[in-house]
């Protein structure tokens, strides 16, 4: 395989990489046993994988020891966490030694509050260091953390607290968001009052992020700071079986009700460490910035576990990309000399809208690896990020994975896998994707189909919380013998994968199967369009017809409809000509920034009610706005 055209020296050469692929394929048992040595075990596992007992049976370990204690001797004074506050002048730095002390203190407080191994502890915090620290503190005592995204509504919080059976919640008085204050505690209070009979929460610990006053219920709520002052800075870790749940995390809810995905300890940690090292070419001295909130899986695996397991330095930023000015993220990269920058296509699209001049004002020469995750990225966005942010010098990893996979599955490996713009490229060594036709038969060579995975991998979720049956039905039963990802993909003549979107999003127009991503890619080439979404609606003659929603950039021209239609017919084909094009101010998005096509489909079909749970939306009101636009004759 030809190597990447970059000037950096990367850890792996194409030859090393090919050797890994061969070893992983020829002898998975031996391969994963060797990879398990990246962790420090109390009892070493007897096997890599067993049919009944999952990954690394017999092994016992503690996750926080693996992230912290075992680095103390060699990296005690190295930075483990850099926290950049919203105000540029405020930075907190934690070395491995001080981070260890903070984690132990919160762990001791949790124990004093009666938390035991196996209990669920919810973490509902803004982007402050306490979030990461609380996760590791739970892990230290064997409690299962359930991180709730800070932007959730009381409804969404109550649902997840009820489902997880959390007994304690760690929250903040408020969060900072630009000049605004976000009422964390008040939102949690509202959630706890919604359906009290369904909740097991009896303690709320409150982090004072600012000195804003809030209401406290004396029998339930406690400020964390005074408890920490009294807590010891060392805490004996709880040894856990490899198969014990480390955390529950709810999926983003793009396709419906969020699922409480359960991740185990041994397998998940091996996967986090393995993928972080391989995909981000982790090297000593790297400053790793993952912009995902810790409320999403990306924030778990690459904002916390992966980099710390590998002795890296994590950067955590409290603020937003556009406050106080549009160059804020670039400023953070410049100030902290970030080497590895991992973000989402939706963020890149927003930053692209600000124009190239903004980026050019900053020195981004520290960057070595750029990554994206969460959605297919358009060629336009890929190239903009690569050229303007990466200066054409950086490795670019478009990483495909999902909450359920625990970590990255398909991605370039810097220095070893040649990139193709907007392709997730090749599976990591030990990952075996297959493309199935609708009857479930694997297709060979260059083809397209339903993306499934053959065999297991250490990071695979254990189950869905409270519902093993749902896990089976969702992932294992649709295509017997395979893990079903829910996504579609194309494989080209080089064996590269191109994710085409969710299988549900494939539109079948007169027998032509068109991925919504294909149409959206075409629309992204039209410079006056900021964002778009394509969906299928029933059509008497064609089976399905295409409806397109486009969000214009500022100062969009009057003939946007014409331009949009032309972009599609010229880039995809005449058969993809849409039935209708709606120009809209925004799209309904999950709080992780993904378009919710299930709603767009209903709205396009003229439905005005029965949209189900809208609490995962960033802005539920957009639904009303779109209905109004669709119902108004053009
Ligand atoms: P839900 O399962 O509740 O509908 P979700 O699937 O959006 O929510 P996540 O687990 O956060 O929740 O997202 C995983 C999905 O994101 C993948 O299945 C895929 O559809 C999409 N995705 C992730 N990375 C990429 C990528 N690099 N390219 C294309 N799609 C991606
Ligand atoms: Mg999903």
UniProtKB/TrEMBL annotation:
It comes from the Bacteria. It is an enzyme of class 6 (ligase). Residues 69-457 form the AMP-dependent synthetase/ligase domain. Residues 17-67 form the Acetyl-coenzyme A synthetase N-terminal domain. SUPFAM superfamilies: Acetyl-CoA synthetase-like. InterPro entries: Ac_CoA_lig (IPR011904), ACAS_N (IPR032387), AMP-bd_C (IPR025110), AMP-bd_C_sf (IPR045851), AMP-binding_CS (IPR020845), AMP-dep_synth/lig_dom (IPR000873), ANL_N_sf (IPR042099). Its EC number is 6.2.1.1. GO terms for molecular function: acetate-CoA ligase activity. Keywords: Acetylation, ATP-binding, Ligase, Nucleotide-binding. Residues 518-594 form the AMP-binding enzyme C-terminal domain. PROSITE patterns: AMP_BINDING. Gene3D superfamilies: 3.30.300.30, N-terminal domain of ligase-like. Belongs to the ATP-dependent AMP-binding enzyme family. This is Acetate--CoA ligase. The gene is acs.
């Amino acid at each position: 395989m030809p190597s990447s055209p970059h000037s950096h020296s990367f850890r792996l050469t194409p030859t090393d990489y090919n050797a890994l692929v061969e070893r992983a394929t020829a002898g998975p048992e031996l391969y994963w046993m060797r990879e398990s040595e990246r962790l420090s075990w109390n009892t070493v596992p007897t096997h890599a994988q067993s049919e009944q007992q999952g990954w690394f049976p017999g092994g016992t370990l503690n996750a926080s020891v693996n992230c912290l204690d075992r680095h103390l001797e060699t990296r005690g004074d190295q930075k483990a966490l850099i926290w950049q506050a919203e105000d540029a002048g405020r930075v907190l730095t934690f070395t491995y030694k001080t981070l260890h002390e903070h984690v132990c203190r919160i762990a001791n407080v949790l124990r004093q509050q009666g938390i035991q191994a196996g209990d669920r502890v919810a973490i509902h915090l803004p982007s402050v260091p306490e979030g990461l620290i609380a996760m590791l503190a739970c892990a230290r005592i064997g409690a299962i953390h359930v991180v709730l995204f800070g932007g959730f509504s009381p409804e969404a919080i109550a649902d997840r607290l009820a489902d997880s059976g959390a007994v304690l919640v760690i929250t903040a008085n408020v969060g900072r968001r630009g000049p605004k204050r976000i009422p964390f505690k008040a939102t949690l209070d509202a959630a706890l009052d919604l359906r009290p009979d369904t909740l097991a929460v009896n303690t709320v610990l409150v982090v004072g992020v600012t000195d804003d006053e809030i209401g406290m219920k004396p029998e339930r709520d406690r400020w964390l700071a005074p408890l920490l002052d009294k807590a010891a800075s060392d805490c004996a870790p709880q040894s856990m079986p490899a198969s014990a749940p480390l955390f529950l995390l709810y999926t983003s809810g793009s396709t419906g009700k969020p699922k409480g995905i359960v991740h185990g300890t041994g397998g998940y940690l091996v996967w986090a460490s393995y993928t972080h090292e391989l995909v981000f070419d982790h090297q000593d001295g790297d400053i790793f910035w993952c912009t995902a909130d810790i409320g999403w899986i990306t924030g778990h695996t690459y904002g916390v576990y992966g980099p710390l397991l590998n002795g890296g330095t994590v950067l955590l930023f409290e603020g937003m990309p556009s406050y106080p000015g549009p160059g804020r993220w670039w400023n953070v990269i410049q100030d902290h000399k970030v080497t590895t920058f991992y973000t989402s296509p939706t963020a890149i699209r927003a930053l692209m809208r600000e124009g190239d001049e903004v980026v050019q004002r900053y020195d981004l020469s520290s960057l070595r690896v750029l990554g994206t995750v969460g959605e297919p990225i358009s060629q336009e966005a890929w190239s903009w990020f690569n050229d303007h942010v990466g200066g054409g010098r950086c490795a670019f990893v478009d990483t495909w994975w999902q909450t359920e996979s625990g970590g990255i599955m398909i991605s370039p490996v810097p220095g070893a896998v040649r990139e193709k713009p907007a392709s997730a490229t090749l599976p990591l060594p030990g990952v075996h994707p297959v493309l199935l036709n609708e009857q479930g038969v694997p297709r060979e060579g260059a083809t397209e189909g339903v993306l499934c995975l053959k065999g297991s991998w250490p990071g695979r979720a254990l189950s869905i919380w409270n519902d093993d049956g749902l896990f089976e039905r969702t992932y294992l039963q649709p295509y017997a013998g395979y893990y079903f990802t829910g996504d579609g993909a194309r494989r080209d003549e080089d064996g590269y994968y191109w994710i085409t979107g969710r299988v549900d999003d494939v539109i079948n127009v007169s027998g032509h199967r068109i991925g919504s991503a294909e149409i959206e890619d075409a629309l992204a080439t039209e410079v006056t369009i900021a964002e778009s979404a394509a969906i299928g609606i029933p059509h008497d003659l064609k089976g399905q017809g295409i409806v397109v929603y486009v969000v214009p950039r500022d100062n969009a021209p009057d003939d946007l409809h014409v331009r949009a239609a032309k972009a599609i017919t010229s880039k995809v084909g005449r058969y993809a000509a849409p039935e209708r094009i709606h120009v809209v101010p925004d799209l309904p998005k999950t709080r992780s920034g993904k378009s919710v096509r299930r709603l767009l489909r209903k709205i396009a079909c003229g439905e005005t009610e029965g949209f189900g749970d809208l609490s995962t939306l960033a802005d539920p009101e957009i639904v009303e706005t779109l209905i109004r636009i669709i119902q108004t004759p053009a």
